[in-house]
What we know:
alpha/beta, globular, 5 strands, 5-stranded mixed β-sheet
Amino acid sequence: MGEYHHGFSVSIERAGDERVLLSLRARGKLEHQDYETLVPMLESALAGMTHPKIDVLFDMRELEGWEIRAAWDDLKLGVKHGRQFDRVAMVGSKYWQEIAAKVGTWFIGGEARIFEHREEALAWLQESA
C-alpha cells in the first residue's frame, strides 16, 4: 500500500473591522474532518461583525479531490455564509479550472478566479480590501 499524504492548513486573519482573509491550503483529499476544523474557526473570526466580508485564498496545487461528505459540507458552508464571501482566489493548475469554477458558484455572491501563482492571487484579493 502506498503512503497517503493528507494535509489541511487554515489561517484566518482580520483584514479590517468587517473583513476577514481565510487562507486554505489542501494536500491530498479534503475530508469531512477538515470542515469540522474550519467552520468553528470561521464562526469565531466572524463573531461580532455586523456585515462581514470574507476573502478566500485557496491553495489547491496539491489537492487531489474531495470526499462526497466534505463536498456536502463545503456546499453547506457556502449556503450559510454565501453572501459574506467577497472574493475567492484559487491557486492551482489548469486541470482545476473547471472544478474551481464550480466551487466558486457555491460561494453565492462571491467572485471566484483561479491563478497559477499565489502572489497574483493575493494581489487580486488586496484590490478589493
